[in-house]
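task queued by scheduler; priority normal; single chain, no ligands, no partner chains; default sampling; output format set to structure tokens
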Amino acid sequence: MKEASKLLEISEQTYYRWRREYGGMDITQAKKLKEVEKENARLKRLVADLSLDNAILKEVLGKSDCA
């Protein structure tokens, strides 16, 4: 294992983490998982942006009520 890790320029810990995460998957399943993870990250950014927009609007509306 040490030789394979050195050849791939990764640590043994990384190898075992990847093996635990992807060990039972075939290539199509691993690709699908990566696609789903990418889409999840995109949606999380979208929610964060909308939440920020919502907070800004609430702040602006709150200030206009006081005026």
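post-processing summary
- The helical segments are 2-8, 12-22, 27-66.
- The CA atoms of residues 2 and 9 lie 10 Å apart.
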